[in-house]
Amino acid sequence: MQIYLPIAEMSLNVFLILGMGGLVGFLSGMFGVGGGFLMTPLLMFAGVPPAVAVATGANQITAASVSGMQAHWRRGGVDLKMGIVLTLGGLIGSYAGALLFSLLKGIGQIDLLIAISYVLFLTGIGLMMLIESVRVLWQRHHGIKQPPRRRPRTWIDALPLKMRFRKSRQYLSVFLPLILGAFVGVLVAIMGVGGGFILVPAMIYLLNMPANVVVGTSLFQMTLVTASVTFFHALNSYTVDVVLALLLLIGAVIGAQFGARVGYKLKGEQLRGLLGLIVLGVGLRMALDLFVTPRDVFSLIVM
Amino acid sequence: MRAAVMIISWLLLWMPRPAAAAALIADISSHEIEITSSFTGTSLLLFGAIDWAKDSNGQRLDARDHDIIVVVRGPATSIQVRKKTSIGGIWVNRHSAVASDMPGFYVVASTRPIHATLLPEVVAAYGLGLENIEPVWSDPPPTAESGTFRRAIDRGMAKTLLFAERPDAVTVLGETLFRTEIYFPATVPVGTYSAEIYLARNGVVVAHQTTPLSVTKIGLERAIYDFANTRPATYGLIAVVLALCAGLVAGAISRRLSS
User: Fold this and answer.
1) Which of B86, B93, B190 to mutate to test the interface with A (most CBs of A within 10 A)?
2) What residues of chain B score a pLDDT lower than 50?
3) Where in the sequence is the domain holding A27, given as residue range(s)?
4) Distance (Å, rounded) from C-alpha B39 to C-alpha B126?
């Protein structure tokens, strides 16, 4: 069953759209990542123009995130205070990132930068998460007990304006999550993804937050950031296709509910290992595109 | 459709004949393509008849070697061409160019290859065929490569069926009637089109006719498209609110179902 998409100006199979939404929603609910790193390439692969894919992907991730976030909220898995600080940082960062984007565009080579940062971040983070979770699982299997980890005191603790984040069991400078949020925001603007795949490991390894609030809080931040990204894309480039987004999000919200449930059954390390595997896979797939000689070196964009 | 052709040919029999040269009468099965939510591309039938010149005894004058050429041209658009280059083993889009004033849709259908039918200067004068579409580079490619960039446009557009050259797609029925089907894919751009029909003989065009055609979005598709382009802020807000509501509602439903 085909349906015509008014903004993308093409027709796609309804079940294909629902399926893509469901798959991405499942991951989103399970891992607390928006799935933008997967959604955008999937849509483009289906033939949706890149600009429409990025903007509509953001709109769909808003729905998937709020649905997943709600499920985590009920289980007390959202640190509201941390989420708001991260979001503020994210908004500042995405604005700065947009400026950086146009600056680099002026110099040229923006495509190379995007491609390389995609591959580096995806494979790097994927590999890191995979190794870490395998290590923990190995130790548990062999009965090696790790003392409860505490973040060692460093210059980080010397930063001013400390704030207590009760749910995250943190007492740290407000600048730390703010800077982390801003850093992710820069990447969101440049790479056109939600940034959950960076935020989630950063919250685990950098902020040392307990695993059960990481996913919910990440989804909270994602909801707000993708909502603003959607709005600005609609305003500046008219590329948000609501028909496509609605179909994607029907699939996604269903997928997200299942994902959240499966996610709660799995242990933190298993979750991280799985996500690491998926992120690494997408990263390697993109690296392949960079190194393999393309069949046609030319590509067209009809404006 | 066959009925329409029959009627036209019947009319032709009774119409007063023009004295000298052959003339053309042609039409399309529909002058408007309406894009609705179920639009997946469509074909239009373009048909017509050759009104032969005859002498006073009703004998046809020049009966041999006539060819029909049909050109359907879409609204002008800009096409960006990007070329990947290997930099240190990494393939990345390096050069790009923008061709303005290109047709967003261009199909040539004929009874025989155009060059077998028309003199080269006639082909060029009428701008027939893909090779005679001159791109206006608003962002020019590297000078040495304008040819390969130009050919990349034809190749890419042909892949999505927006450009086509079909040298055997016009069929002639009997000696008077001709027909061809023009396919419009789902990605067809909206706007005003023209269908040009040429009657060729001895290397020159002896008659031609142009008929308009339009592709429009209608109904909900039209409303959404217009809304997104005229009230982008409101549209953006609605898109966000819609996403938030859908997410919350779906969450509530699934909780209800599972409890």
Assistant:
1) B93
2) 13-20
3) 2-291
4) 33
